[in-house]
Design a protein that fits this description.
The structure holds two protein chains of two kinds. Chain A is α+β, with helices and mostly antiparallel strands. Chain A has ten helices and four strands, in the order αααααααααββαββ. In chain A, a hairpin with a 4-residue loop joins β3 and β4. In chain A, α1 crosses α2 and α2 crosses α3. The relative contact order of chain A is 0.13. Helices cover about 65% and strands about 0% of the residues of chain B. Classes of the chains: A alpha+beta, B mainly alpha.
Chain lengths: ~280, ~210
């Protein structure tokens, strides 16, 4: 074996790597006859020993516990927005409504908790596009402002109009178009609860027993649910106190009750927006 | 009789992606030490190592769905992310200086005394008191040589595993390691024997 060939296997030999038996024998024979290569092997072995000692000295090095705690917190925060159900496609698939609704309710409650932590400025941004009013950042029909007026027969007439006198068309069913996989419908539905161009035709005029809904309000930070291509709307029931999380007034006398809400789920199963229904 | 099997990294990742907190914790505890040590040995800074480890698992959380087991192991993926983070951190913070630049004359003398060996200049490298010298010699290597030493010699990875982490050919790892070890020997010898800093080993060969 030449010095040149010896050099090619020197590192592996010094590191105790597997070598071809023939090559190893030749290398050892060469080292015995070549002092320079023998010295190289000696240096390499000493270096390997030094590196092993260095490795052993750091063997117990661990990440501080605070890193795990921080990561766990981040994981839990993320999990609040990770779908806990299998993604449900809206087009043509048979789906079980109640398990999805239950999962959505869990997501919403988590979202409420997160929204409470948002500074006011952020919350304003999240509701950008909605009408603002003196008592709330969210646009909602008059009847949300003070539930007591719901029992006032004189106000019944005005229930289906907004502050500017525009008619609010009640929504009685889930927007069927969403379940049919229509694109762009979500944005249409989000406009004051009315179904407009591109959406499903509005139901006939409001009649007793029909529902009135607020605007859809975004549940995720920064994302625009109006960009959603596809999704589902799921009806859930929430504690009445949930209204407060969105700046909606709560009638303390009925604080223990429950309210209906429609949750807009993306095709990935993540809740994107919510509207309250009465 | 019940047989208990340890879930694989991929299985833990799948559970983690589905929101299983215990799977995330198990995966973190299994892999954090290696990642932390890699970052520590690459940067020489506990603060950077801590930040890098945290960032690696944050990336895992946010991009777990993008990990493709067909392209490599999860461990390799994590080391690869750590490597990128370390290089980025080192690029930001240039306060880490090579061994020869970091010592004053006095310290240099002390290091020299430590490394003096009368009959075998490198024979006492295994002694605890020279571990720091080896560490500093490793830190003084250029990053692309340092990383192969850290992965192959300190983390005992195979050439193939290191190549997966570094995203290069196995032959590249092999040649870089050969060159890096030669540089280490030079540096340690130069530290022990001032005046012999000129290359005593022909390290110009490339085996790629």
């Amino acid at each position: 074996m030449s010095c040149r060939n010896y050099e090619t296997i020197l590192t592996e030999a010094a590191r105790g790597q597997m070598l071809d038996a023939g090559a190893k024998t030749d290398a050892l024979a060469h080292a015995e006859t070549c002092p320079r290569c023998a010295a190289r092997l000696s240096d390499e072995k000493a270096l390997s020993a030094g590196l092993s000692s260095l490795s052993a000295s750091a063997a117990t090095a661990q990440t501080p516990a605070r890193v795990e705690a921080a990561l766990l917190g981040a994981f839990r925060q993320r999990s609040a927005f990770v779908p806990v159900i299998a993604p449900v496609r809206s087009s043509g698939a048979q789906w079980t409504r109640w398990p999805v609704a239950a999962a959505a309710a869990i997501l919403i409650v988590s979202a409420f908790a997160a929204l409470r932590l948002l500074p006011a400025g952020t919350r304003e941004t999240a509701t950008q596009g909605s009408r603002l009013d003196g008592s709330s950042l969210i646009a909602f029909p008059d009847w949300w402002k003070d539930e007591r007026i719901a029992n006032d027969p004189e106000r019944e007439v005005a229930r289906d109009r907004d502050e500017r006198g525009r008619k609010l068309i009640p929504v009685t069913h889930f927007p069927r178009g969403l379940r049919d996989g229509r694109r762009g419908l979500v944005h249409d539905v989000a406009v004051n609860g009315r179904r407009t161009a591109g959406g499903v035709k509005p139901e006939a005029a409001a009649s007793p027993g029909e529902e009135i809904a607020t605007d859809f309000m975004p549940l995720t930070y920064g994302g625009s649910f109006s960009q959603l291509d596809d999704g589902q709307v799921v009806r859930v029931e929430l504690p009445r106190s949930a209204l407060q999380s969105f700046g909606l007034p709560v009638n303390v006398e009925r604080g223990g009750g429950r309210v209906k809400a429609d949750v807009l789920l993306g095709h990935d199963g993540v809740a994107r927006a919510i509207r309250f229904v009465r | 009789m019940t047989l208990f099997t340890t879930p694989s990294d991929d299985e833990l990742l799948r559970l983690m992606t589905a929101g299983d907190e215990s799977a995330f914790v198990a995966l973190y505890r299994r892999r954090q030490a290696g990642i932390y040590r890699f970052a520590l040995q690459m940067s020489g800074s506990e603060a950077i190592a801590e930040d890098v480890t945290q960032e690696v698992f944050m990336v895992l959380m946010s991009e777990a769905k993008n990990f493709d087991p067909a392209k490599g192991t999860l461990a390799g993926y994590l080391y690869g992310v750590a490597r990128n983070q370390v290089l980025r951190a080192l690029g930001r913070d240039r306060s880490f200086v090579p061994i020869n630049e970091g010592h004053g004359e006095e310290e240099g003398e002390a290091a020299h005394e430590q490394l003096v060996a009368h009959d075998d200049p490198l024979g006492d490298l295994t002694r605890a008191e020279v571990i720091d010298s080896v560490r500093q010699a490793v830190m003084a290597l250029p990053a692309h040589y340092r990383e192969v030493v850290v992965l192959c010699d300190l983390h005992e990875m195979s050439y193939a595993e290191a190549a997966e982490v570094l995203g290069c050919a196995v032959g590249t790892v092999r040649s870089r390691l050969h060159r890096a070890r030669s540089l280490l020997i030079e540096k340690l010898r130069a530290t022990k024997e001032p005046g012999t800093a000129s290359p005593i080993v022909n390290t110009a060969r490339c085996f790629a």
